[in-house]
Amino acid sequence: MWRAPGRVNLIGEHTDYNDGFVAPIALPLGITARVTATTDGAVHARSVGVEPARFDLAGLAPGTVEGWAAYVAGVVWALAERGHDITGADIDLDGDVPHGAGLSSSAALECVVAIALDDVFGLGLTRDELIAVARRAENDYVGLPNGVLDQSASLLCRAGHVLLLDTRSGERRHVPFDLAAAGLALLVIDTRAPHRLVDGEYAARRRDCEAAAAELGMTALRDVVDLVAALAALTDERLRHRVRHVVTENARVLEVMGILDGGGDLRAIGPVLIASHMSLRDDYEVSSPELDLAVSAALGAGAHGARMTGGGFGGSAIALVDAASADDVTAAVTAGFAAAGFGPPSVFAAVAADGAHRVEV
Ligand code: ADP
Ligand code: MG
To answer: Are the beta carbons of 138 and 71 closer than 8 angstroms?
Structure first.
């Protein structure tokens, strides 16, 4: 049996598809898969809480399988595209990553299916190849053009560390991230307002970035070295805002890494998280009323920093708090949601967990 986790991104939102840096941690929440190889030319997939699915391998192509099983079919299809012959499989799934909460249940699903199929069919794929397969499933089968962050987090992260990944070079570093030793905690605030990325806003942001990079004559916004000059060169006001977010967010990833590497006070991360949230809210325009309230209520209750995490438009926020005030912050956010007429959020403390791994049956 294999298990692959969901994630929260500590910093570095919407930087991955701009060839920039990201810094996720894997969560203890994940999806487990028990996979048996068969030879009947079909995949039978079951997952707790959803309708079982069955699809044929012959003629498998984007669009032939819909609903949740599209994530499974996408992985099988991406493997076949690479020349790996899957003869059939029984796939049993169980998971505790909330769906659509911005904690990347979709990547957990793709990655656990990919690594379990790799194992039972003896394909011998590296983690990087599995990332490519899982990402292809989401991009080209399900149809969400996201970057490499979610699948990388699910397959590469290590317990007790934040993953610093350069999405252009693939270079990575596991940076020790021991909040508990510093008397701190990282709260995840799942607003329970589902994100609606497939509705086209994510793709629209991506197109904006590509248009801006093209106008600036660059491969990707990662290449902007002089932000003031880049902003002056752009004619479209909206693109200026998009570029400002990406460039400053990329710098914030390195700023947070500098704080972690420096071994100083981890509370210094807080203001960087706040700056990230304001940039995502005002320049990138991917926040939501629930996310803004989660952040402001957490800060009002003494959090050192807070920001939305994930693609946005709903989903989850994170808050860096003193461990001793975690309950107070949770209560304040919950009360704020009630006062605003929002449904109750789900708040829990995130611990940096291991990426995809084998589990005992
Ligand atoms: P997120 O990745 O933020 O959780 P997405 O919209 O990208 O949100 O992916 C959520 C979708 O992934 C669900 O709607 C469902 O189709 C699928 N999914 C996630 N977890 C599971 C699971 N345990 N079993 C079946 N499908 C799942
Ligand atoms: Mg997802």
So the answer is: yes
Tokens 């390195």 sit on residue: 254
Q: What is the pTM of this model?
A: 0.96
Q: Is 146 in the pocket of ligand 1 (CB under 6 A)?
A: no
Domains of the chain with CATH codes? 2-173 (3.30.230.10), 178-350 (3.30.70.890)
Query: Is 150 labeled as catalytic in the residue annotation?
Result: yes
Distance from CA of residue 274 to its chain's centroid?
19
Q: DSSP for 208-254, please give it.
A: HHHHHHHHTT-SSGGG---HHHHHHH---HHHHHHHHHHHHHHHHHH
Mind listing the pLDDT tens digit for each residue in 250-279? Answer: 999 999 999 999 989 999 999 999 999 999
Residue 47 CA: which ligand 1 atom is closest? Answer: 24
For the segment 30-79, what is each residue's pLDDT rounded down to a tens digit?
A: 999 999 999 999 999 999 999 999 999 999 999 999 999 999 999 999 99
- Name the residue with the closest Cα to ligand 1, atom 7: 106
